[in-house]
Amino acid sequence: xxxxxxxxxxxxxxxxxxxxxxxxxxxxxxxxxxxxxxxxxxxxxxxxxxxxxxxxxxxxxxxxxxxxxxxxxxxxxxxxxxxxxxxxxxxxxxxxxxxxxxxxxxxxxxxxxxxxxxxxxxxxxxxxxxxxx
Length: 133
What we know:
The protein is α+β, with helices and mostly antiparallel strands and 133 residues long. It has helices at residues 2-5, 25-29, 49-58, 60-68, 88-97, 105-116, 118-132, and strands spanning 12-17, 37-42, 72-74, 79-84. It has a 4-stranded antiparallel sheet, with helices on one face. Helix 4 (60-68) runs antiparallel to helix 7 (118-132). The protein is elongated, with a radius of gyration of 16 Å.
């Protein structure tokens, strides 16, 4: 993953699409066919099941606080996720009115939730940095 990202990052944020294939980004963002989009936070500096399990144990209390705040934790990918739930009708109206601001507001809400969780995420980043050393 480091080469894909252009470096090694203790925590990085990205849009994650489910495994269902779509022809367009619009199909994914509008949830066509049950597709999901998440704003995800992950690391590419710690790997291996044993190391990731040890890290998860070290950040257990902070993970629980994030879960309580509406995050999901994907154990397999070792990433924190926030579901981006966009309304198809608002997307369609946004294109018709040339104003997608209301349609993409859930993405802004997810970013705001990440910003409000900064203190917890900083502690997790420190734990990841320590585990990667």
